[in-house]
């Protein structure tokens, strides 16, 4: 008997069809008249399959006591039209098999809702809850949409290295990778001899695949990376992870406005795809997580993003009359309170800020003629803040070398990167979207720890 998943059964199964369903019990209710109702979930959709088991089903009296919340079962039966509300069909069991029991005395998930804080402690079982099942499906839908968006535009999917020796963002937030025995080194209190180490020099986990993506963009054309990214930022916020997933498209011959157009189309496409492909899950988020999420997404997908220079944004923030905790001056890195004011209170829609001060942005961004700003762009969205960071890249060798020096970096470490400007340099641009921030925007989940299966944050790397 081929196994049919619950989502397919609920939409396609016809009365009197014989089918098998397998999954995990959400609840069981015994009626006085000698039969039981089981709500079965297999993660394929938000809804449960209602199963009716008569007492005359073989093994009923032995098995039914083990059909408790969390147990896994296999049921064969006949599809019937359901007299109940809110469900088209139900399954009348002809056989019931308990595959794995779940002791009700210790199984931590119960029918009642649990707090996200509690569920974070049981990251291995939380995907069995409605919220985390829905997050997993929407996250998957976003990943599919990301690949589709670029693949249909002819972009090449590129795998950039996880282990690297260059610090793309120049922020010193790298996790070092070493086989050196740190404990022994500490005891002897010697200097670390990186030449003796595996790679012969200090190596780290990547903070961005951008620099490597530039090498392919300037040879095979439009490309994108999509992979895990690591940042040793000690920021305990609801928007930062030490390990997150980033999508980074890189395009030759693109200037900053082209980059902005692509970023805007990209975000709108992802939203459209999730609304079309996950309507039930989105309805759940709108009812149970954030009652404004569908309205916010509708607004984002149908309106043009505001485009504003950093300097204009600073003028606006200074003159708006609002008292910010962190005062605004030209040259500061905008804080989350400033981003929220722009996107939630003032414009009430996404804002693309561009032309940031050179001093707060990495070495690779193209310098403007004003000698103060670079061709950077950040896409800010309501509730989440910065969802995309990107720029036009500096393609002029002399200017790039001067910036590398200015940032206190060693040009020798970037010989291969500067070669791209030595040989056939072209204007080019790209950006990075944090997958988890996109999941936060779309689901309305407030804490980034709840939109990645196994969050890594300071002090937390369990399971
Ligand atoms: O602005 P960022 O640092 O830009 C880059 O890394 C560029 N190299 C991208 C490029 O141009 N190819 O990071 C890009 C995005 C941010 O806008 C944010 O969405 C996400 O990555 N991000 C994080 N997400 C979760 N936790 C963190 N610690 C993050 N840091 C950045
Ligand atoms: Mg950024």
TrEMBL record:
Record key words, sorted: Aminoacyl-tRNA synthetase, ATP-binding, Cytoplasm, Ligase, Nucleotide-binding, Protein biosynthesis
One short Pfam name that applies is tRNA_anti-codon
EC id: 6.1.1.22
GO BP term, example: asparaginyl-tRNA aminoacylation
Subcellular location(s): the record lists:
Cytoplasm
What reactions does this protein catalyze?
Answer: tRNA(Asn) + L-asparagine + ATP = L-asparaginyl-tRNA(Asn) + AMP + diphosphate + H(+)
Cite the PROSITE patterns for this sequence: AA_TRNA_LIGASE_II
Q: Which GO terms describe its cellular component?
A: cytoplasm
A Gene Ontology molecular function term of the record: asparagine-tRNA ligase activity
| Superkingdom, taxonomy of origin | Bacteria
In the UniProt record, does the keyword ATP-binding occur? yes
Q: Does the keyword Protein biosynthesis apply?
A: yes
Please list the residue ranges annotated as the Aminoacyl-transfer RNA synthetases class-II family profile domain: 137-453
By its UniProt entry, which PANTHER family does this protein fall under?
A: ASPARAGINE--TRNA LIGASE, MITOCHONDRIAL-RELATED, ASPARTYL/LYSYL-TRNA SYNTHETASE
Q: What protein family does this chain belong to?
A: Belongs to the class-II aminoacyl-tRNA synthetase family.
Q: How does it assemble?
A: Homodimer.
Could you identify this protein by its name? Asparagine--tRNA ligase
State the organism named in the record: Fuerstiella marisgermanici
């Amino acid at each position: 008997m081929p196994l049919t998943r619950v989502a397919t059964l609920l939409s396609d199964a016809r009365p009197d069809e014989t089918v098998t369903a397998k999954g995990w019990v959400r609840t069981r209710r015994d009626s006085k008249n000698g039969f039981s109702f089981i709500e079965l979930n297999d993660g394929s959709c938000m809804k449960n399959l209602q199963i009716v088991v008569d007492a005359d089903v073989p093994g009923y009296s032995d098995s039914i006591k083990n059909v408790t919340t969390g147990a896994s079962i296999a049921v064969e039966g006949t599809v019937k039209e359901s007299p109940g509300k809110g469900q088209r069909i139900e399954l009348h069991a002809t056989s019931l098999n308990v595959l794995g029991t779940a002791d009700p005395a210790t199984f931590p998930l119960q029918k009642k809702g649990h707090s996200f804080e509690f569920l974070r402690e049981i990251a291995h079982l939380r995907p069995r809850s409605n919220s985390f099942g829905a997050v997993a499906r929407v996250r998957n839908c976003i990943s599919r949409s990301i690949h589709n968006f670029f693949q249909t535009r002819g972009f090449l999917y590129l795998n950039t290295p996880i282990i690297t020796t260059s610090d793309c963002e120049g922020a010193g937030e790298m996790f070092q990778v070493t086989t050196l025995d740190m404990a022994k080194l500490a005891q002897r209190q010697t200097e670390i001899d990186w030449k003796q180490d595996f790679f012969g020099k200090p190596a780290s986990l990547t903070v961005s695949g951008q620099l490597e993506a530039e090498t392919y963009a300037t040879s095979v054309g439009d490309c994108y990376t999509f992979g895990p990214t690591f940042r040793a930022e000690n920021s305990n916020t609801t928007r930062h992870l030490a390990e997150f997933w980033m999508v980074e498209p890189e395009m030759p011959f693109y200037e900053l406005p082209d980059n902005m157009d692509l970023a805007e189309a990209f975000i709108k496409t992802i939203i459209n795809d999730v609304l079309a492909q996950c309507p039930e899950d989105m309805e759940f988020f709108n009812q149970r997580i954030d009652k404004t999420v569908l309205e916010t997404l509708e607004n984002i997908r149908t309106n043009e993003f505001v485009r504003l220079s950093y300097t204009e944004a600073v003028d606006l923030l200074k003159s708006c009359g609002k008292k910010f905790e962190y005062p605004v001056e030209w040259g500061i890195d905008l804080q989350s309170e400033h981003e929220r004011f722009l996107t939630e209170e003032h414009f009430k829609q996404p804002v693309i800020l561009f032309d940031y001060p050179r001093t707060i942005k990495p070495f690779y961004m193209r310098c403007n003629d004003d000698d103060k700003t670079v061709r950077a762009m950040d896409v800010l969205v309501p509730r989440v803040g910065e969802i995309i960071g990107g720029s036009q890249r500096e393609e002029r060798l002399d200017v790039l070398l001067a910036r590398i020096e200015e940032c206190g970096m060693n040009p020798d470490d970037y010989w291969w990167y500067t070669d791209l400007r030595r040989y056939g340099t072209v204007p080019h641009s790209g950006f990075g979207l944090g997958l988890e921030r996109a999941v936060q925007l779309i689901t309305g989940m407030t804490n980034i720890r709840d939109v990645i299966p196994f969050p890594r944050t300071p002090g937390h790397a369990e399971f």
